[in-house]
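Q: My labmate handed me this sequence with no annotations at all. I'd like to see what the chain might look like in three dimensions before we decide whether it's worth expressing. Could you predict it?
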Amino acid sequence: MWDFPLFPKAASTLAPRVDLLYLFLVGVTLFFTLLIFAVVFYMAVRYRRARTDVDRSNPPAANHIMEIIWIVLPLGIVLFIFAWSTDVYFDVVRAPSNALEYHAIGKQWMWKFQHPNGRREVNYLHVPTGRPIRMVMISQDVLHDLFLPAFRVKQDVLPGKYTSLWFEATEPGTYNLFCAEYCGMEHSLMGGKVIVMTPQDYERWLAGDVAGETPIQKGERLFTQYGCNTCHAAGPGQRGPSLVGLYNSKVKLSSGETVTADDDYIHESIYTPTMKLVAGYQALMPSFKGQLGEEEVVNLIAYIKSLKGGEERTAALAPASATASTTN
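A: Here is what I predict for the chain of 328 residues:
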C-alpha cells in the first residue's frame, strides 16, 4: 500500500489482512452502487413517459426467480463477509502466547508506556520488529482510545478496567499513534510516535536505560512500602488472604460468588477493596485510590503475578498489592 495519510503504509502482520477485507467491502459497495445507478438510469431512459414504442401492456404480476436471486445472492454475500471478518477479528483480538507484554496508561493528554523491563516513555513507544507486542491498557481519568494506523489496530482505553490490543511490527520506521476518542480540550494533541527498530537496535536502545528496577522489583518495593505484607503475609497474624498463587485462580467471595483473580479484579481490590470481599475475611483493608497511581498498580500486579504457588518471599509472602487485603 502507498503511504497516504488516509491510508497509511501497512507495517504489521495484521495490516494486509485488514486491508484486504476493507478493500473487498469497498469493492462490493462500489459494484452494487454503480449497478443500481446504471439500472435506474437505463429504466428511466427506456421507459420515460414521452416514449411510445415500448410495450407497457400486461406487466408481470410477479417474478419468483428474480425474488429468489435478490434474496439468496445478498444473503450469500453477507454470510461470506461475516465469516471472513470474524476470522480476521479473532486474529486481531487474540494475542500470541509469546507476546511481549507492555503497559499503556492514557491520561489527559498524554500516553505513558512501560516496557517489560520497567523502562518508561511518554508519547513515544520503541518496539522491535518480528516480535508480537501485547499492550495492556488503562485510563487514569476519562475514556481514551489507542489507535495505531500503520498497524491497523485500535482499542478503547477505559478508566477502572484493563483492555488490550496486540501487533507485530514488520518494518523499521517511525509511525503515528493517536487517541481516537474525544477526551477533552486537547484531545487533538494527544498523539505520539511508535519507533520500530530491528531486534539488535532495540536491545541496544533498551540497554541504555538506567532506571534499575524491573516492574516486579518495583511492585515488591511498593508492597512493603505500603505495608501490604502486614496483612497478606501467611502466618499467625494474617488478616487478609495470602496472595501467593493468587493470580488467575478462582476466589470465593463472601456473597457466595466465585470470581477469577485477573488484572481487573486485583485493580478493583486495590481501589475499592470492599466491592468483592473474600469469604472468611473482614472488610479491614482501606482504599488506596489517591495514594497509588495507575503506574504503581501495574507494578503491583506484576509482582502478584510473580508469586507462584509454593514460592516463598522474605518480606511479603503475599503479593504485592494493598490490593486484596480483604477483597482479593
